[in-house]
Design a protein that fits this description.
Rossmann fold, five-stranded mixed sheet, Spore Coat Polysaccharide Biosynthesis Protein SpsA, Chain A, alpha/beta, 36% helix, 3 domains, ten-stranded mixed sheet, single chain
Length: 411
């Protein structure tokens, strides 16, 4: 009889630089009753060799080599081979705390939980930030449906999730995950984690949310896609995700709430991927979401993360704004076009018209705004994102999404 309580599944593709640290953090767990499934998704680098070498040193490791099929297919291949009662996912470029599995398992057993959620650490250029869920506690089926699900995708603040999309700070029951994972189309290659997390949550009857941070998420510059080559393909992929979520959540949420959550989620994803400016082909104009700004405005962009990089990449093509400086408190060596990242102390009020904080998270926006004001930046120059519901709904319709969020103009 198997004593494996947790199967840890690690999808692997082109991460040879980071993989050993990930594997070693798992092999050093205080919790022993687990197996480690390394899923080589046709990685063209040394990852396959690294996996095989580790497997020779520890019998808890299973290696699965498969043709490249994307993240979802790797997660499914891991689930196919898993023997544990519970499933934990770890990304191969991240690492975990020594008590990661022990804490997850105890939270699951103590609460007989279908789903366990914890905090995590965000590591960025050597700096570590602690991220904790705001709603810790135990939730039964009634509370999941009345308190968690109605705010899970969009909690009323643009655009913040009530529950994080990530699968890696969670523990799942294998039998319940099988009911969810195999039904997600492999073509969903944007928002895969959201597809898993929210559809699984809809089936969960007991939920435990802990603030304890256990997982180290490594944010990498080289993992960020900096421009959209074909907006219609992007919209098609987003539409697949949003339609899937609507289908899976419609039995447990009223239509108005569900449509509202998905509308704001879709808008936020389009914003980030498009770099803010969205071309409305039907009406023949650029939708500018940054309130008060105009074409030709002298702009400072705050944030060198995904959204910030997309803003600069998009502006290279459109020349819509005059971006005079790119700043971040996480000052580091990065370049898009002629713009390099500068420290926040490098700007003066008289050199720009507006400052765009490149985030869709309201809490981050508020905290950064406070820091900028403390540095003497004029608060009236710090812009907000347009969240007018009517304008968002009109934009989404004009872009080609139908009432079920399917993108109808894909060719």
């Amino acid at each position: 009889m198997s004593t494996i309580k947790i199967s840890v599944i690690v999808p692997i593709y082109r991460i040879e630089k980071y993989l050993p640290k990930c594997i070693e953090s798992l092999l050093e767990q205080s919790f022993k009753d687990f197996e480690l499934l390394l899923i080589d998704d046709g990685s063209p680098d040394n990852c396959p060799k690294i996996c095989d070498e580790y497997a020779e040193t520890d019998n808890r490791i299973k290696v699965i080599h498969k043709p490249n099929g994307g993240l979802l297919s790797a997660r499914k291949a891991g689930l196919d081979a898993a023997l544990g009662t519970y499933i934990a996912y770890v990304d191969g470029d991240d690492w975990v705390d020594h008590f990661y599995l022990d804490t997850l398992y105890k939270l699951a057993i103590a609460n007989d939980a279908d789903l366990v959620v914890t905090g995590h650490f965000r590591e960025f250029d050597g700096k570590i930030e602690t991220i904790k869920p705001k709603n810790p506690g135990f939730y039964d089926e009634v509370k999941i449906k009345s308190e968690i699900l109605p705010n899970a995708i969009f909690n009323g603040e643009f655009c913040e999730h009530g529950m994080s999309t990530y699968v890696w700070n969670k523990l799942f029951r294998k039998d319940l995950l099988k009911q969810v994972l195999y039904g997600i189309p492999n073509e969903v290659i944007m928002g895969e984690d959201a597809a898993i997390t929210y559809s699984y949550l809809a089936l969960s009857k007991r939920l435990a949310i802990s603030k304890i941070p256990l997982y180290y998420y490594r944010q990498r510059h080289d993992s960020i896609v900096k421009s959209i080559e074909n907006p219609k393909i992007e919209y098609y992929r987003l539409g697949l995700l949003m339609n899937y979520l609507k289908t899976k959540l419609s039995p447990v949420l009223d239509e108005e709430n569900l449509n509202n959550q998905i509308t704001y989620y879709l808008y936020s994803q389009i914003l980030v991927r498009s770099g803010g400016l969205i071309y409305n082909e039907k009406q023949g104009y650029w939708f500018n979401p940054f309130l008060n700004t105009e074409k030709g405005s002298k702009i400072v962009v705050y944030s060198s993360g995904s959204f910030g990089q997309h803003i600069l990449s998009t502006n290279l093509k459109t020349d819509y704004f005059k971006i005079i400086k790119w700043i971040d408190v996480d000052f580091h060596d990065l370049k898009v076009g002629e713009n390099t990242v500068n420290p926040i102390s490098s700007i003066q009020n008289d050199e720009f018209d507006y400052l765009v904080i490149a985030t869709i998270n309201p809490l981050i926006h508020k905290s950064l705004k406070v820091e900028l004001e403390l540095m003497g930046i004029d608060s009236s120059k710090i812009v907000k994102i347009n969240t007018d519901t009517t304008k968002i709904e009109t934009l989404i319709k004009d872009l080609g999404f139908d009432q079920n969020f399917i993108f109808t103009q894909h060719q």
